[in-house]
Amino acid sequence: PSPKKEMNGQRVAVGSDRATVRFRGMIDGTEWLGVEWDNPERGKHDGTHKGTRYFECAHPTGGSFVKPNAKVDFGCSFTRALKERYGEFEKPEQLDLVDSRNQRIAIHMVDGDRGLKRALDSLTSADLRDELVSHSGDEAEIAALGAQCVALQELSLVHTLLSSWEEVGRITHALPSLTALHLSENIFTRPAGLPRGLERLVSLVLNAAKIDWAEFVALGPAFTALEELRLCNNNIASLASPHYSPACFPNLRHLDLTKNSLITWTALTPLANHLPHVAMLTLNDNKLAEDFTLSCLSPRLTTLSINENAVSQWSTIAALGQHASLVELRVRGNPVFAGERALHTRQLLIALLPYVTVLNGSEIKARERDESCLFYLGRFAEAHHRTKGTPAHAAFEKDHPRFVALCEKYGEPDAPPPPQVTLKDHLLTLKIAVAGKPPLELRLPPSSTVAQVRKVIAARARLGRPDSLALAVVDSTGCRVPLDDDLRELSFFSVSSGDTIEAAVE
Fold it and tell me: CA triplet 266, 270, 273: central angle to 5 degrees?
């Protein structure tokens, strides 16, 4: 089909590549289309030719000029695409086949269409992914198709050439039972007004569509029945918008913003303020970290998923635990859990999240909660008793806001026993200086006698008879004391770690 006169924003296909038309007009006496490629490596410039800018590009090499010829595909209607994939077709009454002896066999078909055609009137789900659908079709065609597709409830138009919300509205309006629409990998232009025909949709998926959240919110009043909205992988960094209103997504319950660019929890505040009825929020694979406060989330939020974010402090988890309506949480893959055993991670989470009943998809039983809280108390009992009654305990309570409440419920944990002292902990580290020999280092118990030390030094330094050695200890101040009594222990001479024992052959 021929391109329309008003084409800015229209999607086209050139071979296997997709692009958006940004310009149509005459350049040097020839008609050209200025396009911005989805893959900027396909382009050559930013919309400028010989010093004149004809259109804007997001990428410096994202644009090209192409001639509006047969190589540029402007797409087909939705009605045509659906009929070609799912509609009825005429079937010949006779089918000619060739047998193994290369003999022609004529087979007459009797009422065979029933087994080969897929009737549109029984179709409940349709997938037109990658079809070059660019518009709905003329009014008569779309109306007739809608009269046939009375059972169609789910429709996928992923990666098509649709660019107009008005055209999407005409398609959805014509399908009386349609409630779920998948429009991912399409790039839409901003509508001039509020599009019609979207009011029956209950679920909308619009992933990887370069969605501008601030502008998309302006469409909110058109989706009066929408309960589930998925806007994954759209590089959304803020949820602020001047277009919020009480009529904006009035029935929205589940919002999925997986794999966007949300960095701060405060970026979610507009959502809590303007769409407080959202009960399920999915924020997986963003970059949310530590600035969480309760005001960032709606008080009605019951389900939150923050897998694969940047949470690195347990205080953020504890703050989430203060959200009284939050009963289901998914929080895998955050740096705060690095180095922790999976079981201990779950126990710590349960202790910090008193209102959560389903954690990472698994229900928390009463016994597991009790065991987890006791584990938490035991884990931090030593720090509690060590700082108790000191100014440092205020910092402990700030880092562990649940500790006091858990003590009130389960009792204060006993102070852990002092660590066991082993022989290794009592060994003296001594330097040995022997004239003409490399320096040595020995670790000896303070109970070692001078005679025993003389034997060890003689053996290590290979000096022959130990009774020929004269020993003296030199401490850190340079004070030198002879070790002249073989029966005395090193402790008698106040020998300490770091001292040097000088050995000389007499």
Answer: 115
Find out whether 450 and 486 touch, Cβ atoms under 8 Å.
yes
CA angle 59, 60, 63 (to 5 degrees): 80
Kindly report the backbone phi and psi dihedral angles of residue 246, in degrees, each rounded to the nearest multiple of 5, phi listed first: -60, -25
Give tens-digit pLDDT for 277-334.
999 999 999 999 988 999 999 999 999 999 999 999 999 999 999 999 999 999 999 9
pLDDT on residue 111: 47
CB atoms under 10 Å from CB of 270, counted, come to 17
For 274, list phi and psi in degrees, rounded to 5.
Answer: -105, -20
State residue 347 phi and psi, 5-degree precision.
-65, -40
Other residues' Cβ atoms within 10 Å of the Cβ of residue 343 = 10
pTM for the predicted model, two decimal places: 0.75
CA distance 82 to 133: 9
Tokens describing residue 438: 């490399």
d(CA 138, CA 3): 16
Only one residue has tokens 């005409």, namely 170
Query: What is the H or E stretch that residue 126 is in?
Result: strand 125-127
At 153-191, the pLDDT tens digits run 999 999 999 999 999 999 999 999 999 999 999 999 988
**What DSSP state is assigned to residue 451?**
H
- Provide the 3-class DSSP secondary structure of residue 203: strand
325 Cβ contact partners less than 8 Å away, ≥ 6 residues apart: 299, 300, 301, 302, 355
Question: How far apart are the C-alpha atoms of 31 and 66, rounded to whole Å?
Answer: 9
The answer to whether 358 and 327 are in contact (CB under 8 A) is: yes
